[in-house]
Amino acid sequence: MKTPNMLEAKKRHQGKIEYTNYSSNLEGFGKGKKFYVRTYGCQMNEHDSEKIRGMLLSVGFENADDINDADIIILNTCAIRENAHDKVFGYLGVLKHMKKSKKDLLIGICGCMAQEEVVINEILNKYKQVDFVCGTHNLDNLLSIIKEKIDTKKRQIEVLSYEGDVVENVPVSRDSKYSAWVDIIYGCDKFCTYCIVPYTRGTQRSRRHEDIVDEVKELVKNGYKEVTLLGQNVNAYGKDLYEDYTLANLLSDVADTGIARLRFVTSHPWDFTEEMVDVIASRDNVMPYIHLPLQSGSNKILKLMNRRYTSEEYLKLYKLIRSKVKDSSVTTDIIVGFPGETEEDFEETLKLVNECKFDGAFTFAFSPRENTPAALMKETVSEEVKMDRLHRLNEVVNKYSNEANQKMLNKTVKCLVISPSEKDKNKVCGYTENMKLVNIIGPKSLIGKIVNVKITDAKSFSLDGEYIK
Ligand code: 5AD
Ligand code: SF4
Asked: Measuring CA to CA, which of 117, 265, 414, 467 is 20 to 30 A from 89?
C-alpha cells in the first residue's frame, strides 16, 4: 500500500524527469469482463479517462454501455472544489448497494481525489466498498493494480506523492472521431493559494515537442479535424525542458501538420507572451478562442491568491488579444468570496467584467481545499454573501454572453459538426471557430465535417443556425 502525503507533494522533483514508453505484459487478462468509467471534472480528466479505457481495452476488457453490466467500475475523480468530492462520496453510496447484489463487482478510484491524504483516510476507514485506488502519477500502472487486486483479493492503494516520469504511447480510446485532446504539459508550479492542482498533479512536466507533433500527425492521418492541446497552464509549455522553445513555437509546429482546427486550454496570464498572441493571430488554423482565467478584479485579492498579475496587467493582455486576434472570443474563470474579499473588492471584479465583456465565464464560490495556503486563511465571507455575489456576478456575465452571441446573428460562419442534437432529430450540434455552440438545422451526414452555417437566433448559452450548402 502506498498512500499520499500532501507535504511531500508540495516538494518538487529534484532529479531529471525521465521519458519512457508505456509497456504492459498482461495481454488478454481482461477477456470476458466489462468495465464502466465515470468521469468528474476538467478536460484533463476526460482525456485521462480515454487512457483508462484504452489500457483496459488493450488487454481484452470490453466497455459496458450500461453500468449494471460492468464487472469493474472506475470513478475518475476531481478535487477542485468540495462539491466535486461530495458527488463522488455520494455515488460510492449508490455503488455500495450495487455491490450487495453483485459480490464480484470491483470498484476503483482514480484522478485527483486519489492524491489527497484526507480522501484516502476516509476511504480506508469508511468506504470499504472501494477495491483499488490508483493515483494520477502512476496511472500507467492501473492494469497491474487491478490484476494484483484480482489475484490477491486484497484491497490495493497505490498513490505516489511525487510525480512520475512522462510516459508516452499509453493506449487511448478516444470519445470522438473528429475532435481529439492532446496533453502537452502535466502538473502546475504556480501554486495559486486556493488551488489543489499543484499537489494532486505535481510539478510542471512538458512532453517533448516531437512526440506531440507526431501524435497530431497521426490524428490528421486518421481524419481528425480538431485538436485541443491540454495542460493546467499551457502557456508554461517548454519552460521546464527547453532553453528556447515555447507554446508559440509549439502552436506553429502543430499548425504545420495541417490539422484543420487547433485549440489550447488552459492559459495563465503570467506566461502569456505577445509572441503567442501573434501566432494565434497569424495562423488560420489556430482558433480565435482563448480561455483566460481572471479569478478576481481586485489587486489585493489577486495578491492573496498569488496570481502574479495585477488587474491592470490582465487588462493590458486582454486588450492585446482582442486587438490582434480577429473575431476572437475570450472566456474566463472567476472566484467570489475568497478570504478577505470585501464588497469593494467584489465591485472591482464586477468593474473588470464590465470592461472586458467576456464571451462567457465560469464562476465559483471559494471552497477551501485541505492543506492549501488559502484554507489556512480566516474565512471572512459567509456562505450567504458568497451566493449573493455569485448571483450578481452571473447576471452581469450572462448579459455579456448574450450580447456576444447577438453579434453573431445573421452571419455565416464555419462550424465543426460533432453530434446529432439530443432534442431534435432534424438538427445537429457544432462549434464555431470561436467556440460557440450552434444547434444547426441539417442532416446527420454533416457530422465530422466543417460546414457553413447561417446564424438565425442567439441565446445566452447557444446559437441556432441553418446549414448553407
Ligand atoms: N475554490 C473555488 N474555485 C476554485 N477554482 C480552483 N480552485 C478553487 C477553489 N478552491 C476554480 C478557478 C480555476 C477553476 C478551474 O476552478 O477559477 O480557474
Ligand atoms: Fe491551479 Fe493556479 Fe495552477 Fe491553475 S495556474 S492549476 S489555478 S495553481
From this structure: 265
Lookup: cell for 357: 465583456
**How many other β-carbons are positioned within 10 Å of the β-carbon of residue 17?**
18
Residue of minimum CA distance from atom 12 in ligand 1: 333
β-pairing, 360-365 with 329-336?
parallel
In whole angstroms, give the CA distance from residue 349 to residue 218: 43
CA distances from 12 to 128, 137, 401 (A): 32, 13, 40
Does ligand 1 come within 6 angstroms of the Cβ of 81? yes
Ligand 1 lined by 192 (C-beta under 6 Å): no
Query: Domains along the chain?
Result: 6-158 (3.40.50.2300), 176-287 (3.30.750.210), 323-407 (3.30.750.200), 412-468 (2.40.50.140)
| Full-model pTM | 0.96
Q: Quick: pLDDT tens for 171-220.
A: 999 999 999 999 999 999 999 999 999 999 999 999 999 999 999 999 99
Q: Which of 12, 43, 45, 190 has the most ligand 2 atoms within 8 A of CB, as the residue to mutate?
A: 190
DSSP 247-315: HHHHHHHHHTTT-SEEEEE---GGG--HHHHHHHHH-TTB-SEEE---B-S-HHHHHHTT-S--HHHHH
Question: Amino acid letter at 256?
Answer: D
Contact 273, 240 (CB under 8 A): no
